[in-house]
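Hey team,

Sharing the TetR/AcrR family transcriptional regulator run so nobody has to redo it. Sequence (211 residues) first:
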Amino acid sequence: MSTSALPSNRFERRRAETRRALVRAARQVLAETGDTSVSIQAIAERADVGFGSFYNHFDSKAELFEAAVVDALEEFGQNFDERLAGIDDPAELVAAGFRLSARMADSRPELMQVLRRRGLGHIHSDNGLVRRALRDLQVGIASGRFTTLDPAVALSALGGTLLSLVELRFARPEVDGDEAAVNLAEMVLRMLGLPADDAHEVARRPLPDLD
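Structure output:
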């Protein structure tokens, strides 16, 4: 789960931990069933906090679940930043991101289930993952690596394809996730304007150590 600096005041630290516990509980619900009709009481019990504490942090369940999705997307983006920090080529970043996402379906299933269930509605939201993706697309366009002229349209294609890959990993676990990710990455790179041979090579470059 994404984290931020802890408040120095003891009361504020406890308050922040209560909020994190509620967000964790909401993420678990989204990952397990996606059923947002679950009661506030059930969420509070799962978080091991008092029922009354809920309204000290959120006005509604909808607000809590929105916070849970944003938290998951931020964690997803942080994973990309940490694991792919040594890659400068925006095309290689796209390809490695697809391959990392496929592997995270196994290594971080809760996180990826949240992305699977709620990610589509956030493709154009102002969250940390989207900002990172737009940054990489804009760098690729400015450098001439990508020929796509509209970053928002490119983001739609990139995000939709990535979510389709995540869906494939959970709906068809017998499919080779790494191979599927490589093939989809190659398709996306060609769509972004890379020549076929270049897209094929970039999609298959050795990955950084992801363990």
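Residues 37 and 87 are 42 Å apart (CA to CA).

Ping me if you want the raw files.
A.
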